[in-house]
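Suppose a colleague, Dr. K., hands you the sequence of a protein chain of 157 amino acids and asks what its three-dimensional shape might be. Before reaching for any lab equipment, you can write down a predicted structure in C-alpha cell form. Begin with the sequence itself:
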Amino acid sequence: MSINIWNQPAPRTHYFSLPNEIFSLNLCAGELAIYAYLLYLENRKTHECYPSYRTIGTAVGIHSKNTVKKYVDMLEEKRLISTCPTKILTAHGVRNGNLLYRILPIVLAIQHRDRMAAWRAEAEHERVKANRALLKQQRERTNAMNWRTRLERRSAG
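The predicted structure, expressed as C-alpha cells, is then:
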C-alpha cells in the first residue's frame, strides 16, 4: 500500500510565518536570512530567542561573526528586533552570555521606515531651500559688485 504524503496535513510545528510586509522593507539577503532564522527560533509566546552569533552564522551560511553582528545591528536599526545582553552564572562567577533577541511587531518597522522616509524628504527639501537662498545671495552680491564696478568706471572716465 502506498502512502500519498501530499494529502497529509503537516504538523503546525514544522512551519513559522514570515510577514508579507517584510519584503517592502528593502532588506538585503543577509538581513532577511537572519530575520527568518530568528523567527524560526523564537518562542511563540514571548517572541524571544537567544542564539549566539556563531549559531546564527552557521545556520544562515555566514562565516564571520562580525558580519552577523552587522546584520543584527541593521535589523535592530530598522526596528525589526531588539537585543538585550544576558549574563550567565557559572561556578567561576558571572560571565557574558548571548544576546536575548526580541522579535518586534512588523508594524513598528513599517512605521519607522515611513517616518525615516518623511524625515529624509523634509531634510532634502530644507537642503534645496538653503541652496536656493545661497544662490540668490550670491547673485545679489555679484549684481552689487557689477554696479559698483560700473559706477567706478563712469566716475573715473
